[in-house]
Structure formats: C-alpha cells, structure tokens
Fold:
Amino acid sequence: MAARDASAAAMLRAYLRAEQMHVFRRLLCRRLALIGLVWIALAAGSSFIAGRGVLTGLAVLSAGGGGALFLEWRAVQTLRELLNGARVQSAK
Structure:
C-alpha cells in the first residue's frame, strides 16, 4: 500500500512538473520572440549592431528557447516512464 502511494505521489509530482515546464516554455518563448523583434528593430534602425551581431543575438535567443523545449521534453519523458511503469505493475 505504501509503495502504491509513493508511486502515485511520484506520478503526480511528474505531471505537475511537466505542466510547469510547458507553461514556462510558452512564457519564455513569447518573451524571447519579443526580445528578438526588438533586437531586429534596433539593428535595422541603427548601425550600432553589425550583421553578425544580429545573427549572434538571434542564435542566443534561439538557444534559450531550445533549452526550455528540452526541459519540457525531459519532464514529459519522466512522466511517460512513470506511467508506463505503473501499467506494467498493474498488469502483473
């Protein structure tokens, strides 16, 4: 009984973590897109940022979004592994 409760708690924790990562990624990507637009506008409106600087800035912003996507993917994978393990246990 205690093992079943611990398993349920772990699944709930993993589910909440996956949802938290999903919301985090969505909010972060929106903000990064806005920052990217401002970055491009600054580059177009002035000679302060060179061509390579624009690409470098956009690459850094993209890396941030990619990192958030990876964290969300890992959280969902952890949840799937726990759910698959619970199905195997209940089938026995």
